[in-house]
Amino acid sequence: MGKKVIITGASGMVGKGVLLECLISDYISEVLVINRSSINESHSKLKEVLLEDFTQIATIKNEIEGYDACFFCMGISSIGISETDFNAITFEPVKAFTDVLYTVNPKLVFNYVSGTGTDSSETSKTMWARVKGKTENYILNKGFKDAYAFRPNMIIPEKGTKSKTGWYNSIYVLLRPFFPLLKKSKNITTTTRLGQAMINSIIHPIELKHLENKDINQLSNISTVN
After folding, report:
1. pTM beyond 0.70
2. 226 falls within a domain
3. Following DSSP, what letter does each residue of the chain receive, concatenated?
C-alpha cells in the first residue's frame, strides 16, 4: 500500500521539487499540501488545505490524521530579520505544527528542511543557525517514529522548479550552463534528489539524522523510488 504524505512549502523551490517526486512515485498514494496560498495544481493524488497561520494548525486537526510522513519544506531567508521575528516565523509555527501532528500521528516520519551550517548546540554566533538548530532539536526529540533534519547547501533546480527569492533565480540563470558538471559533485544536490531522498527516508530508514548534501544524494540512491 502506498504511503500518505503531508508537504508544506510546496510553493517554494524545495517544496515543489519534493511534491513533483511524490506525485510520480509509485510508493506515494496520497499527498496533502498545506500552504498559505494555493499552488493551483491538480493531480489525482493531490489534496490541498489552506492555512494562513501555521500556529493555528489545530483548526485543521481532522485533515492531518492518518498520514505516514510530513515533509516540512516551508522556510524563509533570515536576511534583514531580527532574531525575535525569525524565531516567531521559523520556530513557533514548526513547534505548533509538530505538537498537533504528534497527537494524531505519533508513528509518522517527520522530515524538516533547514540548511547547512545549522547549529544543534544552539550556541552559534549566527542567529539563524541557533534558531534552526532549536527547531531541528524540537522535532528530532519529539518522539515520532522517525525524524530527519535535511541540511542542503547548493540545490540545483530541476523540472521547472524556481526559487521564490529573485536573486537566487538570477544566479541559477548564470550557472545553468554548468549544471551538468555541478551535478557530478557529491556535495551538490538537486530538487529531484532531495525529493527522492525524502521518499526513501520512509521506506529505508537510516541512523544518520542530520543530512548534508552528500548524505541526501546517498539516500536518494538507495533504491529506485519511482
Report:
1. yes
2. no
3. --EEEEEE-TTSHHHHHHHHHHHH-TTEEEEEEEESS------TTEEEEE-S-GGGGGGGGGGGTT-SEEEE------TT--HHHHHHHHHHHHHHHHHHHHHH-TT-EEEEE--TT--TTS--SSHHHHHHHHHHHHHHTS--SEEEEE---SEE--TT---SSHHHHHHHHHHGGGHHHHTT-TT-EEHHHHHHHHHHHHHS--S--EE-HHHHHHHHTSS---
